[in-house]
Specification:
The chain has 674 residues and is an alpha+beta fold. The chain contains 25 helices and 24 strands. The chain has five domains: 60 residues, Helix hairpin bin (Helix Hairpins); 231 residues, D-amino Acid Aminotransferase, Chain A, domain 1; 79 residues, OB fold (Dihydrolipoamide Acetyltransferase, E2P) (Beta Barrel), CATH 2.40.50.140; 183 residues, 5' to 3' exonuclease, C-terminal subdomain (DNA polymerase, domain 1), CATH 1.10.150; 71 residues, 3-Layer(aba) Sandwich (Rossmann fold). The chain has a five-stranded mixed sheet. A five-stranded antiparallel sheet has the order 16-15-14-17-18. The structure holds 2-(butylsulfanyl)adenosine (IVH).
Length: 674
């Protein structure tokens, strides 16, 4: 290709890719498959490799710089970055409304309501549409230069798109990390034995202040614009709603949770509505911000000290609270793993009383230097189990050394007193009691009855405990010899419930081989492996006879899992239980006829929320077509199907060059294959 021809093509590609990014990140409406997108990217990289003079700073290939910076320099904001006044209750909100209505001499006001992101404020300067610098808020006048890192955030456009690009624009917004991104990052950090972040905000802050942009590029950061600073351009921006719409048109992501609100009552309702949905949002918020919508009215109201009179943050209760860790107890799981659990002095965290929090494992306790008696930060976000985030070391001194105790992992199981061992390279300690340990036995029965295993309707945790404690069952095989009369004699169990349970047990007998294998609870044999085994062998007898060498030839089954399977079927106790279950009438269809399934041997990952199908439906569909559906993306993954708010798995797929499908393309693909 000639240089001139290459120049044109590179320019066209850059524009096209920027437009696709805009559709994807800002409009949330991708118009091409990821495959096509990757092809365009590769073509641009190829041209720029051949003709390096054609590389521009706003090229989508230039997001991640090659060399780290030596320090974070200072950047002066053109217009200072202000803070916000707070309100904590309805009265304070009404007082705010009254105050400004009086100042403006108006009877009613229109506000723009939006979520208050719990992240880090940044100021991004665009000159003639090009991203020039990005800086943290700092003291409001001067911040730290984090341009090299902000450039790596995929939602931040390197150049603005659309009409009437301003000569100068300071975009104000927040860098955040989603809950999903945060959890994935901490898991990765844990695996690498590196620093665990206390909350998404800290993780975002740490990521944004890196010297090496390559590190930041691997951190799942997002960005939302919520306003502007300095501005020179032709478009007349007369209201806050105007500004947000215009920012979006220029390619900047703005929150979808913004609403124009007429009067204070509408604001209060909006605050309650967002509050109710707080835990469902993809990222942390700590309140709702209300801004007087008309810019002329904003001007008239002006500022007090460092905060505008025309805006207020109506805060939510914090997700983190301080309390005392009274004790650390140990719970025994199905596989014998001992999990330390913190018993806390009861504390209300965002509306829920928290008395327990997980401590994961002994390494985590050491890493966080948690001791019994410590005052700790406890965090509860969304549906996740409350967590001890950090210790307040200063308060340890107050307590006096005598009241602070180190936690020691017990050397015998607190339930069955069997020995506790830790295998080399493993973080967990385990009770070796197996099913003779009542804790493990109960968990094994709970697993057996669970929805994805034998799916025994109405047989919940409490009832299983009651059944074992009353001596009616000791193993899963006993379930099928329960009599209605005996059941009905149990406390809190009537004739009707007993009848229902017997019916549910009966119904569960008609199952599938893969469910049955999964229900056995063999160590590290999850749904996916159970399915693989069922598909490969099609008979329980053959699985029982398989050797480790044979099992290891199956993709996805490594030496450890192979050994777990073989050891399981070597134990007489297990074989006896299986025998009893089969005699009780558990059965499945033996599909001897080999059906050629279109997706057999292919591996899919589903991520984000789908609109037309649920993730579970999509999964079942794929499985019925022979595909394997796994939870994490690796080089072996063939397709990643992504929905809304897809996070790190999606990014990983892009990184590894794996074909990604949005829901529409996915549905088309399965329709076609059918
Ligand atoms: S507007 C002139 N809008 O809150 C008004 N701020 O306490 C300036 N923040 O440092 C801020 N979400 O980081 C505004 N939707 C939002 C916001 C928001 C989060 C943060 C921002 C700022 C702090 C002010």
């Amino acid at each position: 290709m000639q240089l001139e021809q290459a120049r044109h093509r590179a320019e066209a590609l850059r524009q096209l890719i920027n437009k696709l990014n805009y559709q994807y990140y800002v409009l949330d409406a991708p118009s091409v498959s990821d495959n096509e997108y990757d092809k365009l990217m590769r073509e641009l990289v190829a041209i720029e490799t051949e003709f390096s003079v054609l590389i521009t700073s706003d090229s989508p290939t230039q997001r991640v710089g090659v060399t780290p910076v030596s320090e974070l320099k200072e950047v002066k904001h053109l217009v200072p970055m202000l803070s916000l006044g707070n309100a904590f209750n309805e009265d304070e909100m009404r007082a705010f409304n009254k105050r400004i209505k009086e100042k403006l001499s108006v009877s009613s006001l229109v506000f723009s309501g939006e979520t208050k992101f719990d992240g880090l404020a940044v100021n991004i300067l665009y000159e003639n549409g090009l991203l020039i610098t990005a800086a943290t808020r700092g003291d409001g006048s001067t911040g730290e230069d984090v341009t090299h890192n902000v450039r790596t955030i995929p939602q931040v456009p390197l150049c603005l798109v659309g009409e009437n690009i301003p000569q100068l624009l300071e975009v104000r917004g927040e860098v955040v990390m989603t809950h999903k991104g945060f959890a994935a990052l901490n898991n990765r950090q844990r695996e690498k034995d590196e620093k665990i972040f206390a909350n998404p905000r800290n993780a975002a802050a740490g990521s944004l202040r890196q010297l090496d942009p390559k590190v930041t590029a691997e951190r799942p950061l997002s960005f939302f614009a919520y306003g502007i600073g300095d501005y020179k351009g032709n478009t007349n921006l007369t209201s806050h709603t105007n500004i947000l719409r215009q920012l979006k048109e220029w390619g900047l992501p703005v929150s979808t949770e913004t609403k124009s609100l007429d009067g204070i009552d509408a604001c209060l309702d909006y605050h309650a509505e967002i509050g109710a949905r707080r835990s469902e949002l993809a990222h942390d918020i700590d309140g709702v911000v209300f801004k007087v919508n008309e810019i002329s009215q904003q001007r008239e109201l002006g500022f007090v000290s460092r905060a505008p009179r025309w805006a207020i943050a109506y805060k939510f209760p914090p997700l983190e609270e301080i309390t005392q860790l009274l004790d650390i107890e140990v719970q025994v799981g199905r596989t014998g793993a001992l999990t330390p659990v913190a018993r806390l002095s009861p504390v209300n965290v965002a509306g829920v009383t928290v008395t327990n929090a997980t401590l994961h494992n002994i390494d985590e306790i050491k890493r966080k230097d948690i001791k019994i008696g410590d005052w700790v930060y406890v965090r509860r976000a969304g549906d996740v189990i409350p967590e001890v985030v950090a210790v307040i070391k200063e308060r340890r001194a107050d307590a006096g050394e005598n009241d602070i105790r180190e936690f020691i992992m017990p050397t015998v199981c607190p339930v069955c007193e069997s020995d506790v061992v830790r295998q080399e390279g493993e973080a967990v300690y385990r009770c070796i009691g197996g099913l003779s340990c009542s804790a493990q036995n109960i968990q094994a029965i709970i697993h057996f009855a669970s929805r994805k295993a034998m799916n025994i309707d109405g047989l919940g945790d409490k009832l299983i405990i009651q059944l074992t404690e009353s001596g009616l069952i000791t193993t899963v095989a006993d379930l099928y010899s329960l009599s209605q009369e005996k059941l009905a004699e149990l406390e809190r169990m009537g004739t009707k419930s007993a009848e229902n349970l017997i019916a549910a047990l009966d119904k569960s007998k008609d199952t599938t081989l893969e469910r049955f294998i999964y229900a056995m609870g063999i160590r590290e044999v999850g749904e996916a492996t159970a399915r693989t085994l069922a598909m490969k062998y099609k008979s329980l007898d053959l699985i029982e006879q398989a050797t480790t060498e044979e099992l290891e030839t199956i993709s996805d089954i490594g030496p450890v899992v192979a050994l777990n399977i073989v050891s399981f079927f070597k134990q007489k106790h297990n074989l006896e239980i299986i025998q009893r279950l089969l005699v009780a009438g558990i059965h499945w269809d033996n599909k001897d006829d080999e059906i050629d399934l279109v997706f057999s041997g292919m591996s899919f990952v589903l991520t984000g929320s789908l609109q037309v199908m649920t993730r579970d439906e999509a999964k079942q569909k794929l499985i019925s077509m022979g595909a394997k559906v796994t939870g994490s993306v690796s080089k072996k993954t063939n397709y990643v199907v992504f929905g809304e708010n897809a996070g790190s798995k999606y990014e990983k797929a892009i990184e590894l060059g794996i074909t990604t499908l949005n829901e529409e393309s996915f549905i088309k693909m399965i329709e076609k294959e059918k």
